[in-house]
User: Fold this.
Amino acid sequence: MPEHTSWLTFLMEHIKDTLSHNAALVGEGFVVHTPPSWHSFEPILASLLIVLVILGIARLVGGQLRDMDKAVVPDSKLTLRTFIEAFLGYVYNMAKDVMDAKRAKKYFPVIGASALFVFFSNIVALLPTFPVATSSLNITFGCALVVFVLFNFYGLMTHGLGYIAHFAGPAWYLSWLIFPIEVISLCVRPITLAVRLMLNMSVDHLILGIFMGLIPLLLPLPVMLLGVIVVLVQTLVFTMLTCIYIGLATEHEAH
Assistant:
């Protein structure tokens, strides 16, 4: 995919030039060897910035909810607190529809955290020159891999070795055929989850950047409105599939 240029790119290049200039001043023996390409570090730094933003929002909103008497009364206008409450409330209701309320509450920290990270990583795609962490396959695959490891861990904790045995299917004489098919299908999940998110966000950010370069005022507005839809849909898809994978891994035969 094409390399995206953001303010973080210029910042890292400035740091690189400063280090090289300082190293040249003190002599060859003190040369600081900088990485040949800073683009590979940009998605990581962008994702760390998103994590810091989420932690800051959590601290701010959590401080407002400590007073239970005031917390039960919603704000009269749209604020950061009401947005987070509505966002996480919608995610929780979606998880509760996919699985039962008990499991939705138990696994909501993982589901809610992934939804917040994907949403805020996606929404900055609407801001020109801002780095988009989810436009990198390394970041999206990392998120998908975390979900993959966790839902398999939850399945093993819930069913024990029976979680692995169920991949063989109900009929033992077909296990030699069904088991490898199920394992391949399981291993493909994080790949499809990562590639789908990366491609959509990368293309959306690239198209917005192209239109901003052509006509920076009026023409990008419809593209930005479509970008909002892309951001919401991709967040919904990633969160929904996370709920489905956890629900399938932890459900009992009675379900």
The CA atoms of residues 96 and 103 lie 8 Å apart. Residues 28-32 have pLDDT under 50 and may be disordered. Residues 43-250 form one domain. The chain has two domains: 1-40, 43-250.
